[in-house]
Each structure stands twice: as C-alpha cells, then as structure tokens.
Design a protein that fits this description.
Layout (H helix, E strand, L loop, with lengths): L132 E2 L4 E2 L21 H12 L1 E4 L14 E4 L9 E3 L3 E3 L2 H7 L4 E4 L14 E2 L20 E4 L4 E4 L5 E3 L21 H4 L2 E5 L15 E7 L2 H5 L2 H13 L14 E7 L3 E5 L8 E5 L21 H14 L11 H13 L4 E7 L26 H4 L5 H11 L2 E7 L7 H11 L3 E3 L5 H17 L2 E11 L3 E7 L9 E8 L4 E7 L8 E11 L5 E13 L2 H6 L3 H15 L5 H23 L17 H10 L1 H4 L6 H13 L2 H8 L2 E4 L26 E5 L4 E5 L5 H8 L19 H16 L6 E5 L5 H5 L14 H16 L1
Parallel strand pairs: 3-4, 6-25, 8-12, 13-14, 13-17, 17-18, 18-19, 28-29
Antiparallel strand pairs: 1-2, 5-7, 7-23, 9-10, 10-11, 12-25, 14-15, 15-16, 20-22, 20-24, 21-23, 24-25, 26-27, 27-28
Helix pairs in contact: 5-6, 5-11, 7-9, 9-10, 10-17, 13-17, 14-15, 14-22, 19-20
Length: about 900
C-alpha cells in the first residue's frame, strides 16, 4: 500500500517511485545558494549558472562550459562522468535510496532522458538502521558512489513542479474523499474527487488554510501561516455527489443552541437521556423541544440519528420560518432585470441588436430550484440613454408598453403591474419588445449617458415588487450626462505601479458606494457588463458590483460579429448558474478563536454579518480567523457557517456548513496539514484589499517577507540541523515560492502603466470575487501543447510547465488563465497540422486577427473540442488571441509564461527561489 501523502513510509518500506518527497525533503537539484552572483545578471564567462553550486568534478573555473555540458539547474552528482560524454559501457543505472545497483524487482530502473528520482545531497548523513532515510529532516540520501546517467537534454524540472504535484495528488488522493474525521486534509483543488459527506462540509464549500490549528496565538504567529477559510457557500457539486438535503421542521423552525445560536449539527451531543443537548461550540446546554425529542441508544446516540441529515452531514439546509424573512413575510420569487444602454455606441457596435435577438435564447437558461422541473424566476426590462425607459410586458397585453422617466434626479417606478413577468407566460410580448427596441433607437445620436439613475431604476422596480433579484447592466461609456453619479475622466495610467496608484484605484466619489449599500440592503445585486472604447472608471462604478456580491465583465472595443458569441455565452452562464438571493452569512467558531477579517464582494454593517445581494457558485469569500484564547489541544476546533438566503423559487432557507479541525501544540503538525491553494487565494484577496491602503511596493514586500518567515520557521523548527546552503521546503508548501512569485507578477498586484486603469481595476475585482478553482489557473496559467494531440482522444491533454523552455518552433500551444486565452503557433509547424485546422499551408498564412478553425477534419474537431472544454470549465468565455511566433503580440503572450523572467524585469522562478533562500538565511541567522 503506498504511504498516505505526508506520512513517512512504513519501516523498511521503499519510497514509491514518483511519490512526492517527504516533508522537508530536498527536491532533487534544488539550488544551494550561498554567496551567489546577483540574480538576473548574466553569468560571467565560466561562472556557474545562477543558483547552482559548483559540484565536485565540475569544469575548471574560468573555462567556458563545453558544448553539451549539463543544463543549468542540474547539479552533476559526485563521480559523474565527463560532461557531454556518452556513458561508459557498463556504467550503472542510478539506484534508489538504499537499493543495490542493478535495480530491485518492481522498481523500474531509470530510463535515460527521464528526470532522476528524488535524491539528497552528498555528505548528508543517513540515520543508522534505515538505509538512506534521515528521519527528522525527511530527506533522502543517495549512496555516495551513485552516478547519474548523462542525459542529452536535462529538464530544468528540478525545482518543485506544479504539474508533478497535481499529477501525484490526483493519483494519491483522487476518488472518494470521506469527511468523517476532524482535520482531514482534502485533495488539491485541481484533483478530481467525489465527496462523501459524513459530518464535515465538502471542501468545495469551505476550505481551511490549516487543518491542524496551533493551540496558541503565539505558535500561529511563529509559523507566520494565515489561519483562514475560503468559503463558497453555493459552490457546484461534482457528478456523483448529493445536493445538500432540505430539512423542514415546520412551525418549530431550525433547532439552535440557546447560548451561541449555533444550529443543530453533528457536533451537538445529546445528554440527560436525550432531553438536552450540549453545544460543542460554546459548551452551553439547551433543552430539546418536545417535538424534536428522541430516545438515546446504548452508545448515547439518538435512535433516529441516521434519518436526520442535520445529525450526520456536514452540509444541509433548513427551511426558514417567518421570523427569518424580511418584515416577517415570506419572500416573493426573485427576478433578473436587464438594464440596457441604448446610446449611440451600443447601437453602432451591434450590441443592442445582438442582445435583443438573443434574449429568447438567454431566458431558456434561467436557474431551476432543487426539486423543481422548471424555473420560476421572473424578468423585467429597462433601457436608458440620458433618460430611463420601463417596459410593461404583462401577458394580457397585445403590445408591450414603454414608460419614460425623464427626471433622472428623482427616480421612481412608473408602473407596478406588468413590469416583472414569467418569461413563458409573457413570451409573445417579450418577443415583440425585442423586435421594437433596436428599431426605436436606430437613429439615436445620444452619446452623453447616465448610469446611476438606471441602476436606481432597477432597484426601485425590485423594491416596488417587494422581491430580491439581480440587475444585469449593459453599459458602454463613462456616465458624464448631468445626473446623479456623473463622473469625470481621471484616466492617468502613468500612476500605476507608483506610490500614488491608489489615488486612481479607489472610487472618485461615494455615490456608487452608497447606491451599492442601498441595493444590498434591499436584496438586489448588480452585475456590470461593460463595453468601453475608452476610460469608464471601473474603480468607481464597480463598487456597485463589489458591495452587492456581483461582478464586472469587460468587452473593450466590442464588435458584435467578433465578440458576440463570447458575450452571449457569458450572459447564459451568468443567469443559469446556481444562485442564492438576498443572503446573510455568519461564521460561528468554538471558544478560543473568532473570525476577524473578511475579503471578497459583499457589504458588512457590523463585524459579524456578511450581506450579499446574491451569491453564486463561482464566488468565494476569504475569512481570517484569529485566536482570542488558548485552545485545549485535546479538543477539536469547530466552525459553522450559516447562509440565510432566498432560493430562485422564492423559498427562504438556511444553508449550514460545518467543519471540525484539529488543535495541536507542535509546529510540525501544522506544516503537515496546510492547504496551499487556500493560503494563496487568501493572500491574493488580502493583497488586493491592501493595495487601497498601502503602496504596491509595501504590499509586495509584505508578501515576500511573510513567505520567507513561513519557510524559515519550518526550517528552524521542523528539520534536522543541516548546512544553511540547503533550501528545505515543507511537503505541503513546496510550491509556495513559485506561487508567491506568480502572485507578485500577477496583473492585479503588479499591473503597471502598460495596462489601462480599467484593466487593473477589473482584474482586482476578478481576484476579490473569484473562487478557488478559478484562482489556481489564474495564478499559474494552464499551458497545453496541442500539436501532438491524438484526434481520437477525448480527455484534455496534459499541461506542461509555464516556461518558454518547454516550447519548440514546430509546436502549437494553448495558454489560458481564466481571463486570457492564447493559441501560440510556432513558425515551423508542419503543414500536416496547419492545413487540417486552418486550410492554409504555413503558420504565416493563418489569419491571427480573426482566429477560426475552419477545417472539418478529425484533428480540427479535436482541437475545437479542447478549446470548448476549457471554456466550459471557466466562469468566463474568453476571447481567443492567436499569436504566431515572432508576431508583435508575442511579448503579451510571454508575460504569462510565469516561470520565466518577466518582460518588466521581474525575477524568474529560479531567481526568485535564490532570493527567497537569501531571505530565509537572513531570518535564520
């Protein structure tokens, strides 16, 4: 049986080939970097490549390397044959730790051209009695006589490698994930797994950065690790998983602890023959209502335990009673309102015509509630330019009616009946309206538009109908017409990346913040679809989306014939996904810790309640948890998150998420149970918040310093003393340096004057609202070769590392991060690949401006399927940018090859590792 990830092999058990190294184990070929030359400077003639120690037997100092000599980044092992020479006849294969030369049964000998197996460094002392395994440091020791076969082209893959980590986790942790224990580390976000809920909430809904929590604030501070949760309360479940069941207690309503108000969960203990229950959060005891009473069996469990979801599951829902509703009245069915800019720009670009022609198709995709067979949601329509127009679409009308509100300073709702309708019942009237709108405004010359009064109109419509809902606002220009919310142009991209950048990243006035707060307090969320050809001030108008739990979509220089498909796919994705309206979320914790800081798209009137106009499956909120007392190390840490919301069929419900973590007094335990993806998304969201207060340099320095503190703490407290020249990384965090370097290069944190102010604000908002699935590839883009795909295959091809070293001129690659999508075509691509896809002879003849696969061949279908499959996995439909080798656009594409040196001079992954190592050594000394 292979050892579980993060556990030492059983006594005498061999490390599995291809298994991740043990915590603290040196990755093969990790740089030892004492006194190294400046990162980023070319090595002097004959100088060792940056970050690599000269190993014994290396070429003479001062001599240039011989042709064919080993690649930078690989230390030759002692006794290695001459660089560039073929192996001597009969030279032995490298052995596994403790293995006799010649290989052991069941272990393949290493093939030439394969990266070597994990190995330690010369001079490392193995523990007696265990061949080659140094217990406390968790490092492997190679037998000193061992030799590596010279490989013609050695991978630079000697640094910790995300693709390898993901592949190994899929192999070790894929399949069923049973949530029956406290502090169980879940599979990686990228792993395909099926959750079996047995008392703890699925990691799709809630992930912790730590699954073993330090018992004291001091210990947590020593590790420098954040204790944070990433919560996606309405995440999609995977195939083979069950929707959280809905529990109905009728008039009685949800059962709660009298003292801390936590809801009934598997973490309540029944005492006094079942007449009372003790809450594990606050230790308070509460009487069981007569209607809920049940006898206990001989083990102290309720006899009906397995018939009650709230006593066995981590995630379930309660139907809420009247006292959980606004004004103690059950809610109305929520609505989507389409608010469409009909000024000159949107008519000219084809946007209005496109939207109106596609509304019928869009409305077929409205969300269907659990247990229902069709959607009950209602819809309404508003158009605006310098005035606002409402439409009556009542099903009994022969023609839709239009009502204009000319006084935009005093917005009101001109009609009560017939504005919000069921799209099926009013189908004919809506169809007629969609034909009329483009005709009514076809000759418009309006270029000065409003925005604030249009959003206010949607809010007033929802208030008048006494229902929650979402506004989908389609807007094309900076609102400069005389009206509330009028903005001035403050476009100055030269400020980006400087000390003064926050002056243009924070809103220029408070009006959109105030509007956002009014919206969220009335259960209204706003999504902005922006079609700007120039500055539109997302930093200001985007506040409405941020505070209401909405998001911003951006289609700069929109043209219906090029970007139309992308827009309609985005709108359909938006209206069809699982969504909760008019929500309030509260985090409860067991004694000793409490939630202190929240990052994401929401509004808070007090320190505990997170208010959301809506929350859907692709949003997450990061929550920092801090100690306010010592934790008893023998007890678990309990967390319960309650989301009170209105479902898309108008039911008021509570979704309850429970999670139990372990408390520990040992630092090594903490490092064994970190979730790096959750840590990185927390750092990313926190950094985006901090950019509004601090300088970009301070934000980045904080990130680097904190990461170095984390690794230095591990080095100091969890590894055996060894030479400071070794960089030792914890197993769970071995990609921390890589991911931090990716975050530092990310446009949200680092975007300078090479991007627009709006682009920068857009990606900051994207990070603040994104969920974990999106964040993983947004930080470290997916890079997929497509020139060698098998037309008969159906799976996505394996990703490769995000570096130019993996590219060849006769290759074709997809690079995507959820916002950008590139197809790169090498100049030497064979005709056998180009012709079936594009119908031309060579790469230079491919039309890069309008990327289109026109072939009807098996290869063309396969590549099209790969592109569509990636698009379907993402929250946005991305514009495909085709880049031919040596095109002007190639510098934009290279910006996303995240392991390489940045186009702005930022460090490569190797250089950054050296820098981190230096920081760690300084902290340790």
């Amino acid at each position: 049986m292979p050892p579980r990830p993060g556990q030492p092999p059983m006594p005498g058990q061999q490390q599995q080939p291809g298994m991740p190294p043990m915590p603290g184990q040196q990755q093969p070929g990790m740089p030892l970097m004492p006194g190294q030359h400046q990162p980023g400077m070319p090595p002097m003639p004959g100088q060792q490549q940056p970050g690599m120690p000269p190993m014994p037997g290396q070429q003479q100092p001062g001599m240039p390397p011989m042709p064919g000599q080993q690649q930078p980044g690989m230390p030759p092992m002692p006794g290695q044959q001459q660089p560039g020479m073929p192996p001597m006849p009969g030279q032995q294969q490298p052995a596994y730790p403790g293995q006799q030369p010649g290989g052991m049964p069941g272990y393949p000998s290493q093939q030439p051209g394969q990266p070597p197996m994990p190995g330690g460094y010369p001079g490392q002392q193995p523990m007696p009695g265990r061949p080659g395994y140094n217990v406390t440091g968790g490092m492997y020791q190679q037998p000193p006589q061992q030799q590596f076969q010279q490989q013609r082209r050695l991978d630079p893959d000697q640094m910790p490698n995300p693709i390898q980590v993901m592949t190994e986790n899929q192999r070790n942790a894929g399949g069923a994930f049973v949530t029956n224990q406290a502090g169980l580390l879940p599979p990686l976000v990228t792993t395909k797994y099926v959750v079996q809920d047995q008392g703890n909430s699925s990691p799709r809904f809630i992930r912790s950065s730590l699954y073993s929590v330090p018992a004291t604030a001091d210990t947590l501070k020593t590790t420098a690790l954040p204790f944070s949760l990433i919560v996606s309360p309405y995440a999609r479940i995977a195939e083979g998983e069950y929707e959280p069941p809905i529990v109905n207690f009728g008039e009685l309503g949800p059962i709660r602890c009298n003292r801390c108000k936590a809801y009934m969960s598997p973490n309540m203990q029944f005492v006094d023959a079942g007449r009372r229950f003790q809450c594990l959060m606050c230790k308070g005891s509460t009487e069981v209502p007569t209607e809920y009473f049940q006898h206990l069996d001989h083990t102290g469990q309720r006899v009906d335990k397995y018939e009650r979801p709230e006593l066995v599951l981590g995630t379930y829902e309660f139907l809420a009673t009247k006292d959980y509703c606004r004004n103690n009245t059950p809610p109305e069915i929520p609505a989507f309102i389409f608010v469409i800019d009909v000024s000159y720009n949107t008519i000219k670009s084809g946007l209005v015509h496109l939207l109106c022609s596609q509304i019928k198709n869009i409305l077929k995709h409205l969300p269907v509630d659990q247990g229902q067979d069709k959607s009950k949601m209602r819809v309404g329509f508003i158009t605006y330019n310098s005035t606002v127009h409402f439409y009556n679409i009542k099903s009994s009308l022969a023609q839709p009616q239009m009502m204009v509100v000319g006084d935009v300073h005093d917005m009101f709702m001109p009609l009560l009946d017939g504005f919000l309708c069921n799209p099926e019942e009013s189908e004919a009237v809506i169809d007629a309206l969609m034909e009329q709108i483009p005709k009514m405004f076809v000759d418009t010359k309006e270029t000065e538009t409003i925005l604030y009064p249009a959003i206010q109109a949607g809010l007033e419509a929802l208030k008048a109908s006494n229902c929650a809902g979402k506004l989908l606002v389609f807007n094309s220009t900076l609102p400069i017409a005389e009206a509330p919310g009028k903005l001035k142009n403050r476009d100055d991209r030269k400020l980006l990346g400087t000390e003064k950048e926050k002056t243009v990243l924070i809103p220029q006035c408070q009006s959109y913040n105030n509007l956002g707060q009014e919206c969220v307090q009335n259960g209204c969320s706003v999504d902005l679809f922006l079609f700007n050809n120039s500055y539109i001030d997302i930093a200001t108008i985007g506040q409405v989306a941020r505070l209401t739990g909405g998001e911003v979509y951006k289609y700069t220089y929109f043209q219906a014939d090029i970007d139309g498909k992308r827009l309609i796919e985005d709108v359909i994705k938006n209206v069809s996904r699982p969504i909760a309206f008019d929500a309030v979320m509260r985090v409860r914790t067991s004694a000793g810790v409490r939630a202190t800081d929240f990052y994401g798209h929401f509004f808070m009137t007090n320190t505990t309640d997170v208010e959301l106009g809506s929350v859907d499956c692709s949003k997450s909120i990061a929550i920092e948890i801090k100690h306010d007392d010592k934790l008893p190390p023998e007890e678990n840490v309990y967390l319960q998150i309650a989301l009170l919301y209105t479902s898309c069929s108008g039911q008021r419900r509570l979704r309850i998420l429970n999670l139990a973590l372990k408390a520990t007094t040992t630092i090594a335990e903490v490092f064994k149970s970190c979730d790096l993806d959750a840590i990185m998304l927390f750092f990313a969201k926190q950094a985006c918040f901090k950019l509004m207060e601090l300088t970009p340099k301070a934000v980045k320095d904080n990130l680097i310093h904190r990461s170095a503190q984390i690794l230095a703490c591990y080095r100091k407290h969890c590894t055996t003393p060894s030479s400071a020249g070794q960089l030792i990384l914890p197993e769970c965090l071995k990609l921390l340096p890589l991911y931090v370097s990716c975050l530092l290069k990310n446009d949200a944190i680092s975007g300078g004057s090479d991007m627009t102010l709006d682009d920068r604000s857009y990606v900051i908002q994207f990070v603040l609202s994104m969920d974990l699935n999106t964040s993983v590839s947004y930080l470290y883009p997916r890079f997929i070769p497509i020139h060698n795909v098998d037309p008969d295959d159906t799976d996505l091809p394996m990703s490769i590392r995000c570096t130019h070293e993996k590219m060849s001129p006769d290759g074709a690659y997809i690079l995507e991060n959820g916002v950008h999508f590139f197809v790169w075509l090498g100049q030497s691509l064979p005709q056998t690949f180009i012709q079936p896809l594009f119908g031309v002879q060579c790469t230079q003849q491919v039309n890069a401006e309008r990327f289109a696969i026109i072939g009807d061949t098996p290869l063309a279908k396969r590549v099209t399927n790969i592109i569509e499959r990636i698009m379907s996995e993402r929250t946005r439909y991305m514009r495909v940018t085709c880049v031919r080798q040596n095109d002007k656009l190639e510098s934009v594409f290279r910006h996303f090859l995240i392991e390489d040196r940045g186009t702005d001079g930022s460090a490569s992954y190797v250089d950054f590792l050296c820098h981190m190592h230096k920081e760690i050594k300084e902290l340790l000394s």
